[in-house]
Amino acid sequence: MQFSRPLFCKSSPCWxxxxxxxxxxxxxxxxxxxxxxxxxxxxVLQADNATYPWYPASVTKxxxxxxxxxxxxxxxxxxxxxxxxxxxxxxxSPSKMGFRPGIQVTVDNALKMMLVKSANDMAxxxxxxxxxxxxxxxxxxxxxxxxxxxxxxxxxxxNGLPADGQITSARDLAILARAIIRDLPEYEYFVHxxxxxxxxxxxxxxxxxIGRYPGADGFKTGFICASGYNLVASxxxxxxxxxxxxLGASSGQMRAVRAAQLxxxxxxxxxxxxxRPSLGTVENLVPIDASPPNLRxxxxxxxxxxxxxxxxxxxxxxxxGGESAVAxxxxxxxxxxxxxxxxxxxxxxxxxxxxxxxGPTKTGAALIAAVAADSEQQTTRKGRSRVAAKKPGTAAExxxxxxxxxxxxxxxxxxxxxxxAEKPVAATDRPVAKPAKPKDAAKPAKPAPKSTEAKxxxxxx
Length: 461
Known about the structure:
The chain contains 16 helices and ten strands. The chain has helices at residues 12-24, 60-73, 87-90, 107-116, 120-131, 134-148, 170-183, 252-268, 296-300, 322-330, 340-345, 364-389, 396-402, 413-433, 439-445, 447-460, and strands at residues 33-38, 44-48, 82-84, 104-106, 195-198, 201-204, 216-224, 228-237, 240-249, 354-356.
């Protein structure tokens, strides 16, 4: 970025402004699209690759929610309408609730499960209930996109699982977020529920800003290998609401950090706004005619094997100095807030999970009974799975071998499966080696463990 009169900046405040603008100058993102807009006016505050086509992943569910809630608002269905889980819905890939075909849920509960847990099966339940089929609902999604001016978006399914023709852009997602705020204010609470409870299972919203970033109040996350980690987020501070869109981040943590950085710049930037060139409104951003980038190799290649799910536990190191420097300059030399990476690494603010359940709408004692029944079902299923695990062939040996791994290594399942095979061998070799104390007897005892250890290593490869 070049400045026309740098030689006339003799005072230190002038140089501080120059430095701040240099930090804030939009940078071409590598494999990332970033966009920040004002919710009420649509004014663009920052745009990097904002009109580049992108695979939406589960942020698709924002359009699914919009079409469904418009049907509720127009009186075609109600939040209490019962929908049935079909075999097609039950067959969807995770994340999902995992209900069997024939189970019924209300529109209200399906929306909560879809938007908080990012349940792919609930997205199909809603699509079939509102549009009659996935294809019928996708047609409604595309009609809605055209009506809203989302000219870069096309939909073929309601959940964002990988499919040819499922495309959007940061520009279009910001337009959709503004439409939800503008057209459905009475139902907007669906996009900022901190957590849900189904039976005994509590699921936190995958949007890490909710409950952590001050003023965060929406929207939705998404991830597939081809798209990277996506996030549409909003926050309100001092009556000003901003919408941030991040596409193609490297992890669930990083997409939240990127969004927090965008929002923080937007809130702190008022004093320097007059120095920045106008970027116009989000609707006036010019679309780029290109194919969406495919980030599969970068996100899921090699050892980075991930499911097509929002359930991400990655963390990232803090941006050494970068975050606080931006906050320092843009806040008019005010003390900086905590770094976004530190805010988002903390536990979310305490909140009571919203109960979700199967069957018709319930309140009071009936609701308590429904939640208890779902808890009982979960307990029964766990009991059955444990009984199945104790069938012939699973003697006490694997049990005792599995105990040393314990909760500390519960997340290293592939290795724990090898350890039971190694320990019995080591146990049988030691008694043989002990009686043979002479040197001649000790030598043949040593090669034996080496040969037994080589077998598990070969099986791993």
